[in-house]
């Protein structure tokens, strides 16, 4: 932890106060520039757009998408026979085990102008849509939901299997409806699982880069530019590593704040 985690963070923190660059005069001589990178960052309108896009992407694909869809699929498979659970589980897991770049290319082909989705719309006589141009944020959110929902499904499936069947059977005998069993027995019993899973998918979603970069490149314009995309562009496209590391610390702080919030809520 000290060598591979603490030291790189401290080094990143130091570099964020320098003019570290890959090319140009700054690459020849490392200089301490104080908080100039942070002043420039918070004056840059693209940073505000990137933070907002990151929050939208996080809320749409992690909080709403993966969390609730994963729970819904796990709930549907509860009490089903082993063959049914094995088949459905394998289908859902296919998206999760697919490498991120392969997943991005598959979904780019699905949402592209000549892709599968528009072919389906054309078959039913509906108007085709330029999904990656008119609704880019929605497409990357749906792509990340498809790619990551299986993890939440596995977590909730394990939690639902731990709910004592005797309690549910007693509730049925007492005349409880399915909705009452869900809201008064199942959800309270696995509430800690919701918090733990939310923390894990949040941290995972904050760092999503390859999926968005391969599908939209952060565009059109800055419509899908999240903090990881913006950080990469500044550090490795514009070669301003010092500025890029300052942006990365903002992403780190966001992850820490959200993690502390989830841990506190678990108490």
From TrEMBL:
PROSITE patterns hit by this protein: ABC_TM1
Location of the protein in the cell: Cell membrane
Entry keyword Cell membrane: yes
Main localization of the protein described in the UniProt heading: membrane
Keyword Transmembrane helix: yes
Topology term for the membrane: Multi-pass membrane protein
Superkingdom of origin: Bacteria
Membrane-spanning residues: 51-75, 87-111, 131-156, 194-215, 241-263
InterPro entries on file: MetI-like, MetI-like_sf
ABC transmembrane type-1 domain span: 52-262
Record keywords, A-Z: Cell membrane, Membrane, Transmembrane, Transmembrane helix, Transport
Family indicated by similarity: Belongs to the binding-protein-dependent transport system permease family.
This protein's name: Carbohydrate ABC transporter permease
Species, as recorded: Paenibacillus gansuensis
Organism ancestry: Bacteria, Bacillati, Bacillota, Bacilli, Bacillales
